[in-house]
Amino acid sequence: MSIQEEALAPNFLKNLIESNLKDNLNKDKRWSGKPGPASVQADAPFDKAKIRTRFPPEPNGYLHIGHAKSIIINFGLAEEYDGECHLRFDDTNPEKEDTEYVEAIKDAVQWLGYDWIEDGRSNLYYASDYFEYFYEFAVALIKNGDAYIDEQTPDEMRRTRGTLTEPGLDSPWRNRPIEESLDLFERMKNGEFEDGTYALRAKVDMASPNINMRDPVIYRIKHAHHHRTGDKWCIYPMYTFAHPIEDALECITHSFCTLEFEDQRPFYEWLLEKLASLGKFLRPLPKQTEFSRLNVQHVVTSKRKLLNLVESGIVDGWDDPRMPTIAGLRRRGYTPNSIHLFIKRLGVSKSDSFIDYKLLEQALRDDLDPIAPRAVAVLDPIKLVITNVEDDFQEHCHAPINPHNPEAGKREFLLTKELWIERDDFMEEPPKKYFRLFVGNKVRLKYGYIVECTGFKKDADGRVYEVYVELIPNTKSGTPGSDSVKVKGNITWVSTKYAIPAQINLYDRLFTEASPDSGTKDYMDYINPNSLKVVNGWLEPGVEILPGNRWQFERLGYFVADPSSTPEKGIINRSVTLKDSWVG
Ligand code: ATP
Ligand code: MG
């Protein structure tokens, strides 16, 4: 079983589902195969899905690591309990939504290993397909005396809403005759009024201790173009009104959302109870349950803030490998399994926390270590010359493709007279405990021979550009003499004659602060100026630079070929270093 198929550890959401299933709570639930109110579901067969969940993103940006948690919860639990999960675009807010985002969201969900097809039927829905229903139900509430048209300004409404300790004040329009509200609502829909002049409010309780119950606005006028319905509507339902109805139309059993919606739950229940009692929905009604958001340190997880990074040019787009978007993580070299592993390790609870970015990185290492092929790369090259061999010296060396998996076989490359090594593998004046190259010291050229450093050359600026060594015969790795000389240093190298050049992007944290957007902080003040360093390096011959190919470059970390990489110009992204190297 792959990590992806591994279930979430026991948690309160699973306990809830199990207890609901035990009580047979949804035994009377019907599902016609498409969303709709009681009239559409009443004669339908009983729902075969044991539970029905949904992942309801607003298509106003690319999904981020926080959404991955919600996806894994909703799709994962549906899979585990023989249910179905809907992908629903919550696109009732016309202004910031776009079809580019719709496509990117579908892509992210599929990349994480899920889809919305059940028995050949698609569970992909758009809240904007329900605009007629929202309107119909709003009219039903008005007719029943449960909603009214208010003409206070948004400002007046805010002022009369009361506080946590004081009740709100009734609007002067609260007891407007039903007929009048119906007429005004229709005229709102017909486009007779400007934005903000009228609003439809639910008539609940202006003295409720929960401010969300103090006659929330449920419909507003907005003369705006919608990416799917065009200019058909100039009134749009508010989230608090739309979301419960979307769940009920789709016959959702468990509506899982993040904790900030806890205070909205009483209205969710009030509204669905009203509509059920008016015959609009069958029981059992969907139930909302909240879990804690995922916050990760050193990133921001808000589509609005991520959009700002894109628009201000701080990153190269939504899929910039520094972005905590699913598209960015993917381009950075994260695997679907590593994301699953990360989310599953964190578990599901009701307590909010900021998760250390290191845990995300560790999940990637843990996923890749057993599977990633190894190779050698030199990122900051200086030349090493073996002085005591012929110019055309060539010798085959072998190394495991993956030391955890001998069956993967061996790789082969040539040791030649001139090699590229890392600049910091040589020191003119070594400190104590430096075991790599300095004049007089011996090291092993990994998978090759032991060499002794004999000298070096500096350029006019005093920068070392060539290091000289003598090869010690009969010390080759894997031969009986390899242990005859003991050394403490083991350095990686590639042949200057055969190495492949590549551009290598070294990424680091995007923000210098662990929580760049907490409290009154402005996250834009904490952009890490060194989050990207581009170097020209050399790769072991035999490495195939095809977009998406991954390796562990020995001693350096895990790397992936960028989608923009071509055979002529290899572009490689560092996904993560081998060990945690972040200071701060
Ligand atoms: P953003 O502020 O980034 O736009 P959102 O909550 O407004 O986030 P939606 O598109 O409405 O984004 O989210 C879809 C679903 O994903 C919701 O059910 C939401 O609760 C969940 N979700 C969003 N962010 C997180 C997070 N950080 N952790 C867990 N779930 C999240
Ligand atoms: Mg949102």
Automatic annotation (TrEMBL):
GO biological process, one term: glutaminyl-tRNA aminoacylation
Catalytic activity: tRNA(Gln) + L-glutamine + ATP = L-glutaminyl-tRNA(Gln) + AMP + diphosphate
Originating organism: Taylorella asinigenitalis (strain MCE3)
Stretches assigned to the tRNA synthetases class I (E and Q) anti-codon binding domain: 491-562
Glutamyl/glutaminyl-tRNA synthetase class Ib anti-codon binding domain span: 372-471
A Pfam family per the record: tRNA-synt_1c_C2
Chain residues that bind L-glutamine: D90, Y239
Protein name: Glutamine--tRNA ligase
UniProt-listed InterPro entries: aa-tRNA-synth_I_CS, Gln-tRNA-synth, Gln/Glu-tRNA_Ligase, Gln_tRNA_ligase_bac, Glu/Gln-tRNA-synth, Glu/Gln-tRNA-synth_Ib_cat-dom, Glu/Gln-tRNA-synth_Ib_codon-bd, Glu_tRNA_lig_a-bdl
Main localisation: cytoplasm
Subunit structure: Monomer.
Cellular component, GO, one term: cytosol
Subcellular location: Cytoplasm
Chain location of the short sequence motif 'KMSKS' region per the record: 300-304
EC numbers, comma separated: 6.1.1.18
MF annotations from Gene Ontology: ATP binding; glutamine-tRNA ligase activity
Gene transcribed to yield this protein: glnS
Highest taxon of the lineage: Bacteria
